[in-house]
Amino acid sequence: MRNIQIDLDLSRHCIETALHRRYNQDISRCLRAEVREQDLEDEITLLKSALESFDFGFLRSNWPELGGRTKKRKPATQGKWSDPDSIRRPGNRL
C-alpha cells in the first residue's frame, strides 16, 4: 500500500472519535459510489486497521492535542506520534 495522508479535525473530538467518524463517512461514500475508487478503499483499510490496533488511551495521555478540543489540524502522517510501533496496542500489527 502506498502512503496515505488523512487529515483529522480534532477541534471537537479526540483522535479515536475522529477516526471513527471518518471511517463511517468513507464507508457511506464507498457504498454510494457508482465506480470503484481505489484511493477511498485504501483509506478505509487504513482507518479500519488504525481503529483496531492503536492504543488510544496511550495516545491521548502522551499527546494532549490528540485528546480533542484543539484548533490544530494535523495530518495523521506528521508529528512525533506517527511511528506505528509507538502507538499500537501490544500484539497488534498495523
Sum this structure up briefly.
The chain is mostly helical and 94 residues long. It has 4 helices and no strands. About 5% of the residues have low confidence.
Overview of the molecule:
The chain has one domain (15-87). It is an all-alpha fold and 94 residues long. 48% of the residues lie in helices and 0% in strands. It has helices at residues 15-32, 38-53, 56-62, 84-87. It is elongated, with a radius of gyration of 13 Å.
Please describe the structure with a list of short key phrases separated by commas or semicolons.
single chain, 94 residues, mainly alpha, 4 helices, 48% helix, 0% strand
Structural Rg = 13 Å
Distance between the termini: 12 Å
Helix coverage percent: 40-55%
Uncertain segments: 77-81
Query: Per the principal axes of the C-alpha atoms, what is the gross shape?
Result: elongated
- Average pLDDT confidence is 79
Tell me the structural class: mainly alpha
Q: State the domain count.
A: 1
Q: Summarize the biggest pleated sheet.
A: none
Please, how many helices?
4
Number of strands: 0
The fraction of residues in strands falls at: under 5%
Order of helices and strands: HHHH
